[in-house]
Design brief:
heterodimer, A: alpha+beta, Ubiquitin-like (UB roll), DNA polymerase, domain 1, 5-stranded mixed β-sheet, 35% helix, B: alpha+beta, Aldehyde Oxidoreductase, domain 4, Aldehyde Oxidoreductase, domain 3, 3 domains, 7-stranded mixed β-sheet, 6-stranded mixed β-sheet
């Protein structure tokens, strides 16, 4: 076991983790942050996507010990982020999720896209999200929802991003 | 004013939310990461399981020594097939009404022999999953190789070794059907086509793998299993059978279920072993399949090869179809549904949308040393559609007739119902022609054709475009004709309870589950309209055998049509009871009252009498306000089973518009369209997303997906990096249209819609590719249609 210290969803946290433990397991099992899901555990499906020092990364491809000293945000810690709230609203309205297992990963990846490009085309949304696997929706509603959230954020950048 | 329960979707006080694209309130849980899948549930004193699985397809167990595992720190217990057998019962996946079907007994863990790569051999229970996995790997397992029977054709050879010594052959099932004049029809035909089609095995690949949490309460001798499942009631009976308990000693609760698509409706040996082990260790025990295990332990599906023939007369009218289908369905028949249903759909539905009156079919299902085999969304319908529609296109091509016009000429007309297909399949009411017409309009067929034939403006040389059409039927609202009659413990009668809460809201309980389809919201809409309350006032509780009425569960597009009808009827009953109570309270006649948006009104002037909140307060807290002797009844329960047809068929049509790059063999899907008729539409937003999601699964099977086996029965691509599923960048926008032909067998009129999208997709994509390859006189009839197969078809690989 090894002690690590990180800023997790805005709070300083100390964890004792096993050296072979990946970050997603540590978040789920040691911190109860079960919104981070495991779909393949070899970096293909994107269900375990979390933000580490601002970047969307695969929680299953990073060892927990590598997160020592990092800022980590999971879906549970994104509630106050206006981009995330706009995305969540749009996902619900547009039914861009069915079983919901992939959804936190899609939301975190989409938030990163909107931060990079506030006006993404459908093609660029599809390309940016193509590292996240959804087996239910067929993707179109997800693309619609990201487009909708991005438009709302562009039209009302000073508000909190909530749907009106 | 009387209510007409046959037309809930027409305008009026009852159709306020049915037909509306209401968003799912429950979706916000998932969007905020607060869903609770089985691996997320917090439990005290939890133990974890892991399995040793067979690394070979066929072998005799020579040595299985659990001692190294049991010596490890943190390991609580371990069993192999022999030691676990003392505590459980085997299952046999046969259906009693199919006397030609045979299958061997299957134990939770292999005994004596292993028969597929991935078959569970031993279970280890430990304080953590990591310890359990390490311990499972330490088990000393030795086997003697037996020749693997991989190819179903070889397995059926007379001199093939038998997979199970107690069975008389490797033939799990065969059936035939033939009309009287089928040979003459082919002999007299002006045109006959013959196609050899092949479809690789695929797997449902729900993103949440299978999993369960089993807890044995020794004090009450009751087992509680929380799991990702589509069928809690079926699983209650399955666990009771396996554990030798009474049904009522078992409680099954559906946790949030991360996709299922037919993969979570079976009795899996590993899940049974976990339930047995949980009883034996007396502590809560959880097991979630990891992705690599999922590929070799979830049911596979759609592995068929078929010879299909079709005949047409000199006037271009289809006269006969013939299909000879072979399926390799693994070493056991999966309990309790059996592994032969796909083939039976092929037998019943090939050619069934067309007017051809002569038909012959033979289906054979072979035992083999590949992974266990079962149902995947659409089951055999997509195959029957592929076989039919590929043949129909081939005939049209031969005759030089446009495939749209050819279908219009040959489909069973919309006024010819009820209709019995030559196979014996009975259709209540279909709208094949109306759906095809709507499809042609939606996709602007003529414009696409002219675009296809136009000189390739902006198109690279070697890039060809094609249009593919498919017309399909899909069974829903099943009767008991298959599972009930076959002895499988799967209900066909569903119940629903609706009650007034003490706060004046409505609480409904049904035995379905929701693995993302949106059943929760659709059911709330049905209840809201039946009772006369706002959608937001309705809560729907599902998926717990302890707290809901019985249900057959979510499969076969049955949830909305069967449970939905039960809830519609329960809602109407509750509405009548509430109006009686309000009338008694206010000394008037119930006929003079109406319930609209949660308010009891006088019918004559629409003035408000009382809210449901006030009525609930009187019923529960102030019984003395009612006339002496009057007992208000604030809950109603109703049950429904569809008994008039084997199933109520839905129908539709789909189209694909593809581009084939003959330099690389790559296919790009430029457009995809679906028109579906599932009767009364409860929620078009949710229905359209079901159709789109299913279509993408079909496109995935047509282009990418396949479980690739080596000659020794080893699965070569059992990872998500190697088994390709569609991602966002490869998929097109999918356009959806509707025709509505409500079933007359229920008041609600709803049929299922969750499988239609996949049913036509295989055929329309394959037909589009072959339409594109037409100028090269090439075709591909093997799924998935990979770049390699396209390059071989056009001879590009042979030239190199």
């Amino acid at each position: 076991m090894q002690d690590i210290e990180l800023e997790l969803n805005g709070q300083r946290v100390r964890l004792a983790v096993s050296r072979r433990e990946h970050l997603a397991d540590a978040l789920r099992q040691r911190c109860g942050l079960t919104g981070t899901h495991l779909g393949c555990e070899h970096g293909v499906c994107g269900a375990c996507t979390v933000r580490v020092d601002g970047a969307a990364v695969r929680g299953c491809l990073m060892l927990a010990v590598q997160a020592d000293g990092a800022r980590v945000r999971t879906i549970e810690g994104e509630g106050d982020d206006p981009v995330m709230r706009a995305l969540q609203d749009a996902f619900v309205e547009r039914n861009a999720l069915q079983c919901g297992y992939c959804t936190p990963g899609f939301l975190l990846t989409a938030a990163e896209l909107i931060a990079l490009d506030p006006d993404p085309s459908r093609e660029s949304i599809r390309a940016y999200l193509s590292g996240n696997l959804c087996r239910c929706t067929g993707y179109q509603a997800i693309v619609d929802a990201v487009e909708l959230a991005a438009r709302r954020l562009r039209e009302a950048p000073s508000t909190d991003g909530r749907a009106r | 004013m009387s209510h007409d329960p046959g037309m809930p979707s027409t305008a009026g006080p009852r159709a306020r939310t049915i037909g509306q694209p209401s968003a799912r309130a429950e979706a916000r849980r998932f969007a905020t990461g607060t869903g609770a899948y089985v691996d997320d549930l917090p439990v005290h004193r939890l133990l974890h399981a892991a399995f040793l699985r067979s690394p070979v397809a066929h072998g005799t167990i020579v040595k299985l020594d659990l001692a190294p595992a049991l010596r490890m720190d943190g390991v609580v217990a371990a069993w192999d097939g022999e030691t676990l057998a003392a505590h459980c019962q085997p299952v046999r996946g046969v259906l009693a009404h199919l006397p030609a079907m045979q299958a061997a007994l299957q134990w939770p863990l292999a005994r004596g022999r292993v028969r597929w790569v991935g078959e569970p051999v031993a279970i280890v229970v430990a304080e953590s999953r990591a310890i359990a996995e390490d311990a499972a790997q330490s088990i000393a397992f030795e086997w003697a190789d037996l020749p693997p029977l991989v190819d179903p054709r070889a397995a059926l050879e007379a001199d093939a070794p038998r997979l199970h010594p107690e069975l008389d052959s490797n033939l799990m099932f065969t059936a035939t059907v033939a009309t009287a004049n089928v040979d003459q029809a082919f002999a007299r035909a002006a045109t006959v086509v013959e196609l050899a089609l092949r479809s690789e095995r695929v797997t449902a690949m729900s993103l949440e793998p299978r999993g369960l949490l089993a807890q044995w309460d020794a004090a009450q001798r009751r087992l509680t299993v929380r799991m990702g499942t589509q069928v809690p009631w079926m699983m209650q009976a399955v666990f009771a059978n396996v554990l030798g308990l009474d049904c009522d000693q078992v409680r099954v609760v559906a946790a949030d279920t991360g996709g299922s698509f037919g993969s979570k409706i079976h009795c899996y040996g590993d899940e049974s072993a976990v339930a047995v082990a949980a009883m034996l260790v007396g502590r809560p025990l959880r097991y979630v399949v990891d992705r690599l295990e999922a590929f070799v332990s979830d049911v596979h599906a759609r592995g068929h090869e078929a010879i299909v023939r079709a005949a047409a007369d000199a006037d271009g009218r289809l006269t006969a179809f013939e299909v000879d289908d072979l399926c390799g369905a693994g070493p056991f028949s999966i309990y309790p549904r059996g592994s032969v249903n796909e083939s039976r759909h092929v037998l019943g539905l090939t050619g069934a949308c067309y007017r051809a009156t002569e038909y012959r079919a033979r289906i054979r299902v072979a035992l083999q040393n590949k992974a266990i085999y079962g149902q995947y969304r659409g089951v055999g319908h997509p195959l029957a559609c592929l076989f039919t529609e590929a043949a129909v296109d081939a005939v049209a091509r031969r005759l030089g007739v446009d495939p749209l016009a050819f279908r219009r000429r040959n489909l069973v007309p919309d006024d010819a119902y009820p209709h019995r297909a030559p196979s014996g399949a009975r259709f209540e009411r279909l709208s094949l022609c109306a759906c095809l017409d709507e499809l042609a309009r939606l996709m602007d067929y003529d414009r696409l054709r002219s675009d296809q034939r136009a000189p390739s403006v902006g198109r690279e040389p070697g890039v060809y475009r094609g249009i593919g059409l498919a017309v399909f039927v899909e069974n829903s609202n099943h009767s008991s004709s298959n599972y009930g009659r076959g002895g499988a413990p799967i209900a066909s009668r569903d119940g629903a309870t609706a009650r007034l809460t003490q706060g004046g809201g409505i609480h409904c309980a049904i035995g379905l589950t929701d693995s993302g389809q949106g059943v929760t919201t659709a059911m709330a809409q049905i209840a809201a309209d039946a009772i006369g309350v706002p959608l937001a006032d309705v809560r729907v509780f599902m998926g717990d055998t302890e707290h809901t009425p019985v249900s057959g569960g979510n499969w076969g597009s049955r949830g909305t049509g069967i449970s939905g009808e039960a809830l519609w009827q329960a809602g109407l009953a509750l509405r009548a009871q509430l109006l009686e109570a309000a009338a008694a309270l206010h000394a008037c006649s119930p006929e003079a009252l109406d319930l609209v948006d949660g308010v009891v009104q006088r019918r004559d002037d629409a003035s408000s009498l009382c809210t449901l909140k006030a009525l609930a307060e009187a019923i529960y807290f102030r019984p003395e306000r009612f006339p002496p002797g009057f007992r208000p009844e604030p809950a109603a329960q109703r049950h429904y089973a569809q008994t008039e047809y084997d199933g109520i068929y839905t129908n539709g049509a789909s189209a694909s518009w593809v581009e084939v790059d003959t330099r690389t063999g790559f296919v790009k899907v430029l457009g995809h369209w679906i028109v579906d008729d599932c009767g009364t539409v409860i929620n078009p937003l949710l229905l359209d997303e079901q159709l789109r999601g299913a279509a993408v699964q079909g496109i995935g099977q047509a282009l990418f997906e396949g479980c690739l086996y080596g000659t020794q029965g080893e699965l070569r691509n059992a990872t998500l990096a190697d088994y390709l599923v569609p991602m966002a960048a490869e998929m097109p926008d999918i356009h959806v249209g509707h025709v509505a032909t409500p079933t007359a067998t229920s008041a609600l009129g709803a049929k299922g819609g969750a499988e239609a999208g996949v049913t036509g997709a295989l055929a329309s994509v394959v037909n589009a590719i072959n339409d594109a390859l037409l100028p090269l006189d090439a075709h591909v009839l093997e799924l998935p249609v990979t770049p390699e197969r396209i390059l071989r078809a056009i001879g590009a690989l042979d030239r190199r």
